[in-house]
Amino acid sequence: MKLEYTYEQLLEKNKNYLWNPFTQMKTYLQDDPLIIARGEGIKLIDVKGREYYDGYSSLWLNAHGHNHPVLNKAITRQLDQIAHSTLLGSANIPAILLAERLVGITPDRLQKVFYSDSGAEAVEIGLKMAFLYWKYRGRPEKSQFLSMKNSYHGDTIGAVSVGGIDLFHQAFERLLFQTEKVAYPYPYRFQGSIEECVEVSLLELKQKLEEKADQLAGLILEPMVQGAGGMIVMPPGFLKEVEQLCRQYDVLLITDEVATGFGRTGRMFACEHEAIEPDIMTLGKKLTGGYLPVAATLTSNEIYEAFYGDFEEAKTFYHGHSYTGNQLGCAVALANLDLYEQENLIRHVQEVSQVAAQELRQVAELPHVGEVRQLGLMIGIELVQDRISKQSYDWKLGMGAKVCRKARDLGLITRPLDDVVTLMPSLVSTGPELQEMIAIIRQAIIEVTEA
C-alpha cells in the first residue's frame, strides 16, 4: 500500500485527533512516536520503513506472527459469506463451531460459551454470571467477590473493582464496588522459603473464606502468573490449594486466562499446570491469533442451568454486545486453533522456552536486575538499584520505560510494567530469534542502568 502521508503529517494528525490508551500523551508526542505501517511474521515495520521485533506480540495477543496467509484467507473466505449478524436471539455458523471447539479444549467442567469483544468484558460477564447464579439459587447474600492484591483483570468498572494495582485503579476508587482482597504469594519479596510463603498466603486466604464465605459469590485470580502486576509467577501447589478451598467453602472459582491462555505459559491454558477445574474461565487476546477482537467467558452447565427457565421467571441473562459472536472473528479464531494443532504450537513453546531460559541467565547476572521471572514465553525482568539489597528504583525515574525506549532504538518493541521489562513475543518465535531479542534487552539494560 502506497504511503499517502509523511511521518510528520501523521504525527501532526496523531497530536490533533488521537488519544492513545495507557499513554501519557505529553511524553509520547515529545519522543519521536512510533507509527506502524505493516507487519510481517514477528516483525513490525514503521512508516519510515524500519523493522522491529514485536517483543510484546502487539499487547500479548499475536500467536502466529503478522500477516499470516492462513488467517488472512479465513477472514476473506468468511467475508464472502457475511461479515456480521447479531447473536441476540439468533446464531451463526462460526460462533456455534467455535463454541464447540472451546468446550473441547478447556477443562471438563466448562461446557457453555458466552462471547464478548475483549478480555475485560469477558471478566465483567463472569462476575455478573457468578452474582446472579447465587441469586437464582436462592442465596442473594453471596454477592461479593474475593480477588488477589496486585492483580489486573481489565479496565471496565467491574474488572477494575476486582483488580489490585493502585497505579491503574486508585483514581477510580469512588466508582468501584467493594471487594475483598488477599495477598498473592510472592517469594522474592518474602522473608523466608517458597514453602513458607505459600503457607502464609494460603492461611490468609483460608481465614478470609472462613470469615466471609457466606457473603462471597466467587474468587477471581490470574492462574500461574500475575501479568500486568509484574509477571509474578505463582509458586507450585498454590493454585491447586486455592481450588480445593473454593470447593470447601462453596465459593465459585473464576480464572482469568486472558493473558495466560492459548499457550503463553507452555500449556494451552495455565489451569492445566495444576489440573484445576474452574467454574468460570475468561479468554481473550490470542483467541483469534491477534487478528480481531473476540473474547469468551466459559462456564459450567450448573451455572448455565440457574438461568434456564420459563420467560415469566425473568432469569434471562441480560447482557450482550453489538458484535458478540462476530462471524469474521469466530472464523479466524477457528483457523487460529487449526494452526495450533497443525504446527504443534504448544510443543514449540515448551522447546523455545528452554532456549529463552538459557539466555536469560546472563540477564539475571546483571547488577541492576533483581529477578527474572518466566513461565513459558511469559517473561518479566525486574530492574533494581542493586541486585543484592533488592532496593527498587524511584518510580519517577521511569527506568523500565527508559530501557524499553533504548530497546526500540536497538530494534525491539516492548512495554514496561513500571520497572519490570516484559518480553511476550509471538509464540512462533524461533530459538535464534529469541536469543536476538534477549540480547537486545540485555544491551538496553546495560546501556541505561550503567550510564
From TrEMBL:
Substrate binds at residues 152, 285, 320, 415. GO terms for molecular function: adenosylmethionine-8-amino-7-oxononanoate transaminase activity; pyridoxal phosphate binding. Pathway: Cofactor biosynthesis; biotin biosynthesis; 7,8-diaminononanoate from 8-amino-7-oxononanoate (SAM route): step 1/1. CDD domains: OAT_like (cd00610). Its cofactor is pyridoxal 5'-phosphate. It catalyses: (8S)-8-amino-7-oxononanoate + S-adenosyl-L-methionine = S-adenosyl-4-methylsulfanyl-2-oxobutanoate + (7R,8S)-7,8-diammoniononanoate. Keywords: Aminotransferase, Biotin biosynthesis, Cytoplasm, Pyridoxal phosphate, S-adenosyl-L-methionine, Transferase. Homodimer. Catalyzes the transfer of the alpha-amino group from S-adenosyl-L-methionine (SAM) to 7-keto-8-aminopelargonic acid (KAPA) to form 7,8-diaminopelargonic acid (DAPA). It is the only aminotransferase known to utilize SAM as an amino donor. Belongs to the class-III pyridoxal-phosphate-dependent aminotransferase family. BioA subfamily. This is Adenosylmethionine-8-amino-7-oxononanoate aminotransferase. It comes from Thermoflavimicrobium daqui. The gene is bioA.
